[in-house]
């Protein structure tokens, strides 16, 4: 009885549309060049939001910066003009070669290339239209600097501004505090969460002044996120044909990541098919599918290639034949030489003959004869191989085997034994060839009988083959269970195997079991006349090795698989009811819907390579299929969408031994501040205005996640308010522009005269800048 397994319907796969793909976006320059400012005025402060990712530059008599461009510099050598050009900002993205060689002046949050800083200053001042009649910049400078900026960094910046550009006065501040200032009345209190390009800072602000002594930093920002995505995708797709640039990963991060409201719960079900349909993002790298498809060879080209291979094979055979003939000729010449030498040796006295043999590098006459005999045999074998002659003349090949021993000398008797062995070997080969021939005849006869049976009774033949197939499949499955059970040391099969090994060891070391005593008594059946070794006297003894060896079981498994494939091929060919879906391979095929790895790598669709592989058998045609080429240039961005932003809340996921935003905030309001959540308390002021700023605040759900996490640790009824900057990218510059016209700004400038008198260590503290903690 044949049992047919019903396969699940593929109607759902056939009806669903292909996934939408998004291009792997490059950063491109705008159509217009960087604008120049035409209303430059002396004495108006210049605001420079000098970030590690981009620069925002403008005069403070406007409401928005005049120039916003990336902090990148590329050096280009014009060989004709013998000049080296510095390309800066968005202009770099107009040329692929410049894009790949561009660099920033920063290593992390600190400047390491001050020449590049000077290039950026020159570029900024030129586009602002700065001009002077005294060789100086006649405008005050307001700039941003990192939180807790090292003295060496500030010293070099002062030196550049005061000595190179001769600026009249300079004020430095913190970008996230300037952003908070732009979105408040200047005397507000709150908790500023500044998500920067290199790090994230949490700064408590009381009455408009940042409390730097309680500021905390998380070493993770936009650039770290981009690098983390690059590492994740490199591990996920190690052989991806397109190199992912920092611009690629930065754009992926900005366009497709979002903050999870409940990371663990969402992660547990992220790869469910229904959710994956909405969450899986297909990123398509640029590839010319038509050009790649045109590379496929036509039938005529394939025929020419096959003919070329045949001709090449024929040439190789001819070359090998020529080499064999050359070696044969060389051996014949060598044999002729030694035949002449043999004639000479027979005429020489023994002492002279021995000296001559040693000169020819032979030990004695026996060594010489042995070498000549082997040389003759080698020549005969070569001639037989070249002529394809399998038959040999026994009289010429083994002349001594039919001569009685009493007619032979002792040396000839030894040679006769060797010839008997060679003759036996030859006879064995002839018998094996005959047995192989008889086996082929038997198989041909069976095949003919089976063909006649199939033509006479197709239904009966199909039923018999299916019955045989079912028995083989059943045997294969049972053997697979046995092989799997060997991996479990507590299974019954493994225990029995270990028992058999122990029994063998006991027999070898003098076991006192009844079986061992019986084998010792039967000393006349021992092997090698060892009275203690009776193993092997009975054929059943050798079966023990099949019980303790996995290799034998695996060999039987492979043989049965080969038989199954052969039967299935016949049934597919002659039985209309038997299809590919009924084969053992189809029943054991991977269910991609239940494979987390498949969904992680290929999304909520079947792998196109597997689907096409069932229809296309030619590997070259399959590799050059347009769908395969397109698929190989795709990235499925799914779990990474929530994994990377989650590092802000769980830095340990990126290997950082630091607390996340929520944990830092909890420690701050409960332990670092007064812990008073009633009006007038410091903690009350903090949670009453949690301000999010910086590039990462563009993430979807960031504000909602902060509200959720903060609510969990705050007391019931606490007045939590979380807001985002109106423009997280430009609000720092707008805060500088707003602050520039206040009396506090006038008191916070360090003039050139003060710098020259007091040195770079001198700092003027203000509400929005760094403080001296010494």
UniProtKB/TrEMBL annotation:
Keywords: Coiled coil, DNA damage, Nucleus, Transcription, Transcription regulation. Residues 289-348, 423-452 form a coiled coil. CDD domains: ASKHA_NBD_Arp5 (cd10211). InterPro entries: Actin, ATPase_NBD. One of its GO terms (biological process) is DNA damage response. Residues 1-25, 504-539 are annotated as: Disordered. GO terms for cellular component: nucleus. Residues 1-15 have a biased composition (Basic and acidic residues). Its main location: nucleus. It comes from the Eukaryota. It is found in: Nucleus. SUPFAM superfamilies: Actin-like ATPase domain. Pfam families: Actin (PF00022). PANTHER family: ACTIN (PTHR11937). Belongs to the actin family. This is Piso0_004937 protein. It comes from Pichia sorbitophila (strain ATCC MYA-4447 / BCRC 22081 / CBS 7064 / NBRC 10061 / NRRL Y-12695).
